[in-house]
Amino acid sequence: MEHRHTSPAVGGQQVSHPHEEHSSHQPHGAMGMNGPRQDDEHMVHSHGQHAGHSVAMFKNRFWLTLALAVPVVFFSPMFGHLLGYQAPVFPGSAWIPPVLGTVIFFYGGQPFLKGGLNELKSRKPGMMLLIAMAITVAFTASWVTTLGIGGFDLDFWWELALLVDIMLLGHWIEMRALGSAQGALDALAALLPDEAERLTESGTETVRVSELRSGDTILVRSGGRMPADGTVVEGQAEFDESMITGESKTVLRSPGDPVVAGTIATDNSLRVRVTAIGDDTALAGIQRLVAEAQASSSRAQALADRAAAFLFYFAAGAGVITFIAWTLLGSMPDAVERTVTVLVIACPHALGLAIPLVIAISTERAARAGVLIKNRMALERMRTVDVVLFDKTGTLTRGEPELKDIAAAEGTDPDELLALAAAAESDSEHPLARAIVSAARGRGLPVPQASGFTSLTGRGVRATIDGRTVLVGGPALLREVGADEPPALAAATAAWRDRGAAVLHVVDGNTVLGAVSLEDAVRPESRQAVAALQHRGIKVAMITGDARQVARAVAAELNIDEVFAEVLPADKDKKVAELQSRGLRVAMVGDGVNDSPALARAEVGIAIGGGTDVAVESAGVVLAGNDPRAVLSMVDLSRASYRKMWQNLVWATGYNIVAVPLAAGVLAFAGVVLSPAAGAVLMSASTIVVALNAQLLRGLKLNPAKVG
């Protein structure tokens, strides 16, 4: 019996082995239903503290603010006093820090002021409110000092400039590490052609896809991509549905069978009646799943935000207590000065760089190991993952058939059998045919010359070799020529089919010479990846649209903990949710369009770089190569970088826990008082410590080939 592959995603039709040459005709150009794809530098985020802020905005404000900060710092009396130099004095020089500092406050500080106001309105204080509080207090106190009001010595212009600039730098670095949902949706839309050929009474007309209507009949040529969902009304062809189902085998579509937008007719032309267009297509449904899943996963709060919320309450409380205490002691000037100092130094530079610096260095180290981190939350979450869910085809396996076994009938040499099969298949472009030819060449077999090649759609191929008529195909071919499979051979082929292999017979006239089995080849690296993950206490699961026997065979070979087989494309997303409902944190590894909703839904989505653009865009992490062992690099990097994040945050917040009480004057009775200048210097010193600590990550060795 011929191997058949069920593809429940598109109607449960079965795949046979029709060998016919693939046309070189290319699909139409892609159309972006969601508009042109945005450049990363102008990417706009719609969630969290960066709502409405683009990467380019932070970058531009950083560079301009930096240029303005240089003269502010240089001409600041407090900074000059700290370093022991006297800035040049000329008419108007004293106004350089306040004038430029004011520009910095309103221009460079605008994102933080707006963000802080939003956090205040939502009653969710975080990094933005902490920064806004610090720069506002510094700005007000500095102007009071500049204008000589009250006789205060609170010249924070240089500290204001540095604080704004360092925070802009930190947010710029951070946002460059974030992923974008828009890229995934654009990549999905790009699977559709721009135009379609609609059949009319007078022939065909070329129309834009947007002009198609349900009920129209369209002509899809060999090599053409489906512009809409529909039903085949005339002709039959093998369809490449890998971009939708993720499975490598082509699927035979005949009259009455459904076809899906974005798939490709690989070998023949056919006529299709349109049943769904635009937002009603299966492809649009996947788009909606991706958008929903990415929106749901973007609501998590970052580690630095939680630290910032703590520091905000800590600083605000310390400021109130400081003011009340010094006022009760009868020293209003000291009350104001101490309170301002507390509020300014409560927002350390280190906190703004603690996370972004670790992320920047981590992503650089990961890239050298072939792991591209697009989303900072993926880096944080990977250390907590309980189960890694691998898509089978193209991830754990190569996604292409490979010759597995040969069984020759009595009196036939196995090498001769393979050589005959390769000769008959040599003119075919079908994946199974290429696998047979490749296997024969790999074994160095002399492949005879064939002539009279004929593709028997849905059955196999026929060719003349040294005067013999040789056929290669499945059970439909055996029935057509009236050939019987020898009992000994039948036992071998039955075992192959039980494990889900594709079985092709080699026939001379009407005599069965033998059979070959072809299977999706398991990557050698997959065994190491699975074992290493389990060694780290992480379970491994596999999901596939393939038949259960195929999935079980691969799972047994790799010792996988749990298997989901015969899963519809939309249900891959549901399987991730099912695992999460058990309390498990999931990392999903896949490479197909149908994987993209699941990649977005999982705590960590990891796309194999050889996969589709959509899968790559939907994931928070992209493996540049096809080595599943690179997932281990992500696990190790996540754990190491998280330790660095915590170390940096402990230092940044620990500095505050010590410096704020000193600035408040708790040891004033002992003559120990932290002056505004000294507090500012200590704040800058904490930034240096954080930066040096983050650099230690560069010593982390990530080598997928040496997993353990």
Low-confidence stretches: 1-52, 177-182, 296-301
What distance separates the N and C termini?
Answer: 43 Å
Average pLDDT value? 78
Question: Which range does the strand content fall in?
Answer: 15-25%
Helical proportion, percent range: 40-55%
What keywords describe this structure?
708 residues, alpha+beta, seven-stranded mixed beta sheet, six-stranded antiparallel beta sheet, 25 helices, 17% strand
Task: Write a structural description.
It is a single chain. The protein is an alpha+beta fold and 708 residues long. The protein is 48% helix and 17% strand. It contains 25 helices and 22 strands. The strands form 4 sheets. A 7-stranded mixed β-sheet has the order 10-22-21-20-11-18-19, sandwiched between helices. A 6-stranded antiparallel β-sheet has the order 2-1-3-9-4-7, with no helix packed on it. The protein has a 6-stranded antiparallel β-sheet with strand order 12-17-16-15-14-13, sandwiched between helices. Helix 5 runs antiparallel to helix 6 (157-176) and helix 5 packs across helix 11. It is elongated, with a radius of gyration of 33 Å. The two termini are 43 Å apart.
What's this, in brief?
With 708 residues, this protein is an alpha+beta fold. The protein is 48% helix and 17% strand.
